[in-house]
Amino acid sequence: MSGKVVVGGVHIKRENLAKIIETKGARLKNDLTGQISLLVHGDLTSQVVTNMKIQFSDKLLEIVTQDRRKHHVCVVSSAGFSELLIGRTAKCLHDYVAGRGAAT
Ligand SMILES: [Zn+2]
Question: Which of 26, 38, 61, 95 falls 20 to 30 Å from 70 in CA-CA distance?
């Protein structure tokens, strides 16, 4: 989790996110390691456009590092996360993030 995560228009606190995620059989981790499979980046908009400015947080930079190790960490926005919670699919923003990160 990174940034402000909003589900259904409501900002969800981290401790509540942890509980929600556990009901889905996953675990919330604060450190990004090789075990991470999904980064929810609350500050990313759902519609990523090419001129969008990404604040390259430590977590996003770690995505780039993991990418170089051939470990694909999926990245979704708050909107994407909301979709996943109700069993729908979400657009993976990994390629965009990794591409932008590699260019900086
Ligand atoms: Zn992915």
Answer: 26
> What Å distances lie between residue 37 and 8, 12, 49, 103, CA to CA?
23, 21, 24, 23
Burial class of residue 76, CB neighbours in 10 A (0-12, 13-18, 19+): buried
Q: What is the pLDDT of residues 50-92, one digit of tens each?
A: 445 556 677 888 888 888 899 999 999 899 999 999 999 999 9
CA of 96 to the centre of ligand 1 (A): 10
Q: List CB-based neighbours of ion ligand 1 within 5 Å.
A: 74, 92, 94
Contact between residue 79 and residue 42 where contact means Cβ atoms under 8 Å apart: no
**Closest alpha carbon to 80 in 71, 88, 72:** 88
For residue 70, report the distance from its CA to the centre of ligand 1, in Å. 12
